[in-house]
Amino acid sequence: MRLVLPRLYVILDAALLKIPAKECAKSLVDAGVRLIQYRNKRASGRELFETSCDLVEYLNPAGVQFIVNDRADVAALAGARGVHVGQDDLGVEQARVVMGDRKWVGVSTHNAGQFRSALETSADYVAIGPIFATGSKESPDPVVGVGFVRETRTMTDSPIVAIGGITLERAAEVIDAGADSVAIISDILRAENVGKRARQYSDLLERRDSVQ
Fold first, then answer.
1. What is the pTM of this model?
2. Would you say 21 and 51 are in contact if contact means Cβ atoms under 8 Å apart?
């Protein structure tokens, strides 16, 4: 059965959080978010594990899918729904060994070659981007544009997550181009009211789907 992802995929990037991760997660859940990833590039393994456990403890009973960035070992030990790996992390199949067949493994891709390679793995979903210019990474890959969403959509029926510089004004356009889900970082985490901004995304994407 094909995996169906929520339209909105929020990434809690520790570098941008103004409040504790769990407090932010509660605001997101109250706003209707059902898919959350935690990313902390600077944390020690212990710190990442402890924060992930706190998030799992809250998010799992709430019915929210929780993903750990980079670290399959931490994701598995914490009881997360899955792990998301990049091009420089463990490969999809190595992460799969750690996570098992019942958990999700997502992978980031930044060009057509990487996307095609990802389709040959057991990845449950493939992320593409940056769709637009982004400030959430120190050394971002080249912008691929909405056209790349349309191009990759023709290559697979597997879930595609679009990421990178997506704003409220652009989200529907990206979904219309073929993405199953939009991953948002800065436009939500840097908002004055995180929950309110997330609710705007949820409402927008729900309206978009209701008229299709």
1. 0.95
2. yes
CATH number, domain at 44? 3.20.20.70
Q: Is residue 2 part of a domain?
A: no
Q: What single-letter DSSP state applies at residue 102?
A: T
Domain count, the chain: 1
* 34-83 pLDDT, tens digit each: 999 999 999 999 999 999 999 999 999 999 999 999 999 999 999 999 99
Nearest Cα to Cα of residue 55 among 30, 81, 86, 18? 81
Which of these, 89, 81, 188, lies nearest to 124 by C-alpha position? Answer: 81
* Position 1 in a domain: no
Q: Domain for residue 19, yes or no?
A: yes
- Strand-pairing partners, residue 36, are 10, 66
Residue 174 sits at the vertex; the CA angle it makes with 178 and 99, to the nearest 5 degrees, is 70
Helix (H, G, I), strand (E, B) or coil at 133: coil
Measured N-to-C along each axis, helices 146-153 and 112-119 cross at an angle, to the nearest 10 degrees, of 30
CA pair distance 180, 108, nearest whole angstrom: 15
